[in-house]
Amino acid sequence: MGKVLGSILSTIGNQVKKASFYSKVEPVVKAISWLWNNVIVLIGNVVIKPIWGLGLKILRGRFPEGLKSFSDRFLTIVILSFATLIYWLFSSLILPSQPAVQQQPAPVAKSPATAPVAQPTPVSPPSTPVAEAPAEEPLPPPEPERKQIIEVQSQVAQVFDQYSQDIVQSVQANFQAERLVIKVSDRWFDLSRSEQNQLGTDALERSRKLNFPKLEMRDQTDQLLAREPVVGSNIIVLQRRTASPELTTDSPA
Questions:
Q1: Torsion angle, alpha carbons of 18, 23, 29, 33, to 10
Q2: How far from 94 is each of 31, 90, 100, 122, CA to CA, in Å?
Q3: CB 163 within 8 A of CB 199
Q4: What's the start-to-end Cα distance of the chain, in Å?
Q5: Which of 85, 154, 187, 235 could be disulfide-bonded to 200 (CB atoms 3.0-4.6 Å)?
Q6: What is the dihedral of CA 241, 246, 249, 253, to 10 degrees?
Q7: Which residues lie closer than 8 Å to 149 by C-beta, 6 or more apart?
Q8: Interhelix angle for 72-94 vs 49-62, to 10°?
Q9: Could you write out the three-class secondary structure of the chain?
Q10: Nearest-CA neighbor of 191 among 236, 249, 240?
């Protein structure tokens, strides 16, 4: 008898609780129902449905004959499903992943400050002269690069030997900067204007064949005598005679 009475009271209590909860949410349910029936459904029937029907009519005209027989409801479901799939794919690819939260290091408990202890003043020993380390000599270039430099020097010497055997003093090849620097002797100033133009042109062609688009010809004082052109294919001769106040920049015709 007691068990039956307990179950009856429990059932009545649950019904009361349900009724009490419904009484709290009933205004919200009524508001949502009124909004759905009087606003959303009205807008859908008056605005969205005609526009969507017109769009389906236009799309149906572009479909093949096999798809034109399907109903508007089926086509609507297919289009919405396809649009949802496209949105999901693009959102998963475009949206950046959330950065991992960096854990802050746990605070370290500070030990109580202790009174400073006076330290004895250290006595430095007498300084002794330290021998300076010898300056490091630059390392020679690796064997493959050394062979390339020798090959470049040989190729340049073949060009200049046509004019004078002792005109080339040194050849510096910078492979990273793609620059070839040729230092010549004073025999450069003994050449005629046409010989200087022809020698510079031959040197420029040979440097480009050796993959050095930048060319500089300098004298023994590192004065720039000729260089590659910015525009065109002719060498730019800057100095034809020994330095003097009246010299100006020159270039071949």
A1: 110
A2: 38, 6, 18, 66
A3: yes
A4: 127
A5: 235
A6: -70
A7: 141, 171, 173
A8: 90
A9: CHHHHHHHHHHHHHHHHHHHHHHHHHHHHHHHHHHHHHHHHHHHHHHHHHHHHHHHHHHHHHCCCCCCCCCHHHHHHHHHHHHHHHHHHHHHHHCCCCCCCCCCCCCCCCCCCCCCCCCCCCCCCCCCCCCCCCCCCCCCCCHHHHHHHHHHHHHHHHHHCCCCCCCEEEEEEECCCCEEEEEECHHHHHCCHHHHHHHHHHHHHHHHHCCCCEEEEECCCCCEEEECCCCCCCCEECCCCCCCCCCCCCCCC
A10: 240
pLDDT tens-place string over residues 174-196 = 888 889 899 988 888 888 899 88
Residue 70 vs residues 74, 122, 148: alpha-carbon distances, Å: 6, 100, 76
User: Identity (one letter) of the amino acid at 32?
Assistant: I
The closest alpha carbon to 217, from 231, 233, 201, belongs to 201
Q: What is the pLDDT of residues 27-41, one digit of tens each?
A: 887 788 888 787 887
Q: Residue type at 82?
A: F
Give the global pTM. 0.40
pLDDT tens across 12-23, in order?
656 655 556 667
